[in-house]
Amino acid sequence: MTLGERIRVYRDRKLLTQAELAELVGVDKMTIWRVENGADIKSKVLVKIAKQLSVRPDILLGVAEMV
């Protein structure tokens, strides 16, 4: 599973749209779309996304097991 797929899974679990997550993180909606579709992401943005999804960044990166 890719980083984008893991973000999508956790976003769906929180019942958030891409636009809602983008607003919470402080980025454009297209940024979330791009990341979920395989684009690179800045570590600062990854940490903000993880915080909003209530998950550790290492889980989103695939270093640790998904919960």
Structure explained in plain terms:
The chain is mainly α and 67 residues long. Helix content is 63%, strand content 0%. The chain starts with a helix and ends in a 6-residue tail after the last helix. 18% of the residues are buried.
Question: Secondary structure elements and their pairing?
Answer:
Elements: H1 3-13, H2 18-25, H3 29-36, H4 43-52, H5 57-61
Helix pairs in contact: 2-3, 2-4
End-to-end separation = 14 Å
* Rg from Cα: 10 Å
Shape: globular
Rounded mean pLDDT score:
94
Q: Poorly predicted ranges (pLDDT <50, ≥5 residues)?
A: none
Major beta-sheet overview: none
Approximately how much beta-strand content do the residues carry? Answer: under 5%
Q: Counting H and I runs of at least 4 residues, what is the number of helices?
A: 5
How many DSSP-defined strands? 0
The amount of helix comes to: 55-70%
User: What order do the SSEs take from the amino end to the carboxyl end, as H and E?
Assistant: HHHHH
Structural class: mainly alpha
